[in-house]
Amino acid sequence: MSDALLDVRDLDIRFATDEGLITAVESTSFSLSSGEVLGLVGESGSGKSVTAKALMQLNANNTRYGERSVIELHLGSGSVQVLKLKRPRDLRVVRGGAVSMIFQEPMASFAPAITIGDQMVEQLLVHTNQSKAGAKELSIEMLARVGISDADKRFNQYAFELSGGMRQRAMIAMALSTRPQLLIADEPTTALDVTIQAQVLDLMKDLIVEFGMAILFITHDLGVIAQTADRVAVMYLGRIVETGTVRDVLRNPLHPYTQGLLRALPRLDALDEPLTPVPGDIPSPLERPAGCVFHTRCTLAIAGRCDQVMPVATLHSTGHSVACHVASDALGVAS
Amino acid sequence: MSDSEALVDVDKLCVEFSIGRKLFGPPTVVRAVDSVSLRIQSGQFFGLVGESGSGKTTFGRAILKAVPISSGTVRYSDEEVAYDLKSISKVQLKDYRKRAQLIFQDPYAALSPRMTVRDIIAEPLEVMKLTKTREETDARVREMAARCRLNLEHLRRFPHAFSGGQRQRISIARALVCQPRFLVADESVAALDVSIQADILNMLKKLQQELGLTFLFISHDLSVVAHICDMVAVMYLGSLVEIAPTRALFHSPKHPYTKALLSAIPSLDPDDRGDVQRLRGEIPSPTNPPSGCRFHTRCPSATALCSERVPIPEQVQEGHTVSCHHWQKLAE
After folding, report:
1. Which residue of A164, A220, A224 is in closest CB contact with B194?
2. Single pTM value for the model
3. B window 273-302, beta carbon within 8 A of A
4. How far is B182 from B216, CA to CA, in rounded Å?
5. CA torsion, points A306, A285, A70, A87, in degrees to nearest 10?
6. Per-residue pLDDT at A333
7. Minimal CB count within 10 Å: which of A170, A201, A215, B179?
8. Which of residues 47-86 of B touch A (CB under 8 A)?
9. Any CB–CB contact under 8 A between B264 and chain A?
10. Below-70 pLDDT ranges, chain B
11. CATH number at residue B58
12. Domains of chain A and any CATH numbers
């Protein structure tokens, strides 16, 4: 895609540990355009957060990126190769500049001993040309925009004085005040009650329209994805196994893992359907399966093929691709 | 349904905590559970749902006598014994602990890292002196471990070697080893991935049927409750707003809060991003609860009456009660 804002190609992420190199993300490629919301779903340990953090080089020091791996941001001022940036100073273009991130637990993300307002002003002074007074004005305006009442009072409060939903709103206000072109949202509503989650999701949908930024939305909740994302990528053990529009993937899931996730999900519109767990456990990161990473838990796995040959992503229909031998075979027969 | 069938009969239960005390004057009292009445029948999978701060965990602990009961009664009665928890004696309470057990939310925090899985599961038997010899203990542990799909090799290991789902199976085996009748499962699947969650839910249901257990299943997740429970009670700020058989609650909810909770669940259908009714604001502080109906500050249908008078539970049909002044008008 030529109009892409973000291009990730062949992303490999390994962690150097005492037990050796552990693969967290492998051969992952995706792109994201302005105004688009890409949902990244997967269970814990699937590598979704590690992928997101790589976009801002926020992973720990023992992280090793693959030699062929490319993370490219196409900004108005030119392209930036994120993984080539080494000095923290250079990374400021990305961190808090073109890219902002909101986290799952807003209590842990705000400094506890500095007021919300001071934290918002500080990042504006670092990343924009605002004066201190201008930064304060903008911060209060943003707090009001995300639905925080008495914004000028909240501006002088500390994170612990705000409720969970309020804190997440403040987090969003802070992330958007620098006008990032890409927003990474890592499980932003997971810690919230369902009624508050609904409020925050509504707010995010409004802000997407208003600010027109691209969003990488990470969650384990397929319902949240259905409600917010345009496209979705399903990750398992560090690989994207299926990607497509939300409609295609949720209505016509092709990968056995996506199908399994949907069958395991309790749905209110199908109370009589039994819950079917995906059989087996996620393999230990030290014993990464050969061939297709999912074959150890797949009921359709073909012996001699799925456990030996890594399936490549095949395009099923426009924008809907799947990395699975069985699904691709079925596709070949059908077409 | 007659009284005699209820395994746990809760009547106007209140639990109060005093928080902070001024130098002079009375302490501030928080009423975490406010006049809750419900009956859990033997063999039922009874769900209790509500947002954080609604008092569901405190309720669960109160009926296990893990927090003091301020007023009201909790009666437990099976074929062998009948206890009134408010005035229960020490000897009786020891016996009650064998009959009623708790399964915790966080399988990482609930297991001692220094004990082997065998010792963790055996501990209740040893503490309550339910077995006489080590062989007998081992047999009981092995039997329960097998029911929870843990093998002999697992019993020798320590909890750190297990995944979240396996740890939750260990917690369940520990809760079941003393052969309780009644279990309180407090957010027992909230910390698990969806596939493991489905596995644990299926296992709980199977164990319930095999061992004739009765469950109080506390959860914030309505879709989970809908799938596993027979009856559901919805709690808001310490009070019950609606109790109904699962199907009735999900197909024809009567209380505006239940309706709002249901509509807040994100739909899996991408085209169903409809204009659902959103609740405004957040759950008020229990130190200073709203007057009248506690939900009136967030209720889209509230009238002047709602802020003045506390609604009493009204029967919609057999087993389905709702506490709302306007439920009939809203149903039209």
Report:
1. A220
2. 0.89
3. 273, 276, 278-279, 282-283
4. 8
5. 180
6. 44
7. B179
8. 51-52
9. yes
10. 1-4, 273-277
11. 3.40.50.300
12. 1-98+180-277 (3.40.50.300), 114-177 (no CATH)
